Amino acid sequence: MFDSSTLYILQGAAVTLKYTFLAVFFGAIIGTLVAVCRISKIGVLKYFSIIYISIFRGTPLLIQLSMVYFILPMYGVKITIFIAGITAFSLNSAAYIAEIIRSGINSVDKGQFEAARSLSIPYYNSMKDIILPQAFRNILPALVNEVVNLLKETAIISVIGEVDLMRRAQIVSSETYDYFTPLFTAAIAYYVLVVIFSTLAKIVENKIKLQ
Amino acid sequence: MIELKNIIKTFGEKRVIDDISLSIKQGEVVAVIGPSGGGKSTFLRCINFLTPPDAGSIEIDSKKVTERNIKKVRSNIGMVFQNFNLFPHMTVSENIIYPQIKSFNKTQKSAELVCSDLLKKVGLSGYETKYPQALSGGEKQRVAIARSLAMKPSIMLFDEPTSALDPEMVREVLDIIRGLAKTKITMIIVTHEINFAKELADRVLFFDHGRVVEDLPKKQFFTSSKSDRVKWFLSKVL
User: Which residues lie below 8 Å from residue B190, measured CB to CB, with a gap of 6+?
Assistant: First the structure.
């Protein structure tokens, strides 16, 4: 069905997905922690998270990735493309996810906090069982958006030599002097991945809403 | 026994509670009425520190309420909100059972018993597995009352419990509150239902501009208040 170079490009989808999901996974963990720090009343935690979010959202992902990959080895830290990619993408994504989660917590009706307090429910329990589940419903679309963005932005990993969708398209182009087909193939592959993911997310969203 | 001394609460420039001192006896049913923005709700929320006062002291059963012991104090004070504030992602029975388990370390079984007992009391047996969004406003408020009662509080605070309800649902909620008034529970009810206050309360507080303008036993309040402000208000609403 596909010729060999098309197939070669499409195999890059696995690489792209690997980076996307690992980065989202670690990004979500770090992001939740940063979000909880962000709404904390403890000054150090709060300002740490404000600075963290500000820096990672305020500088290009390409620079963040390059710093991790090129600067750390200068100080003797050996780092593979894979680790550098996951590190940079996770840290970057965490900043966005933290802001999404924070807005989700803020979107929960103030009355829910008050009801929990008036019923003497401990802070940890009310966060975990009452506030965050409601926040999650509200932020699901924004989280999906973040995953979709990340999926496309992982194309940057091609700059430090990973053979993902993007890089494979470039390799084929430079060998065949045909830019049209390879780039189009890669673009369609990204697009299909995004559509599949968005559709799955929509189904989950509707399911949650029905409850 | 609730004892408030010189309570003050300011929001920005506005003094919402302006030096209020009063005491409420165990088992007393107190209606709090007055114009909107007069400080009624804030007064109520100061008592369980949902809105901590800026100055003054609150004693409940001779113990001073502070930020430090507030969790313990709150476990003795039920609160019913205008907007119910049920947990929307939990069923009716989960709403009533969850706080009992997390706040009072009850077993699932004993919490369930309390739950079905209370649902019966508020006339909602058989509603256990429904979600709040499937209930009418009146039903939601009755669940919210049951949820508060599950703590076995000795004080109940009602913050305009019928204000968000359709008129035909007001009665079912008032009937529940009426039933509670006969028990030993101390009740403070912020309400716009003047006739309800007239029927139920032992005592009526009239709030305006953050002050208690009038504080009288029910009978005197409605028949012989000397305050022009109260007379004017009553002439408008009765």
Answer: B32, B33, B40, B41, B43, B44, B158, B159, B160
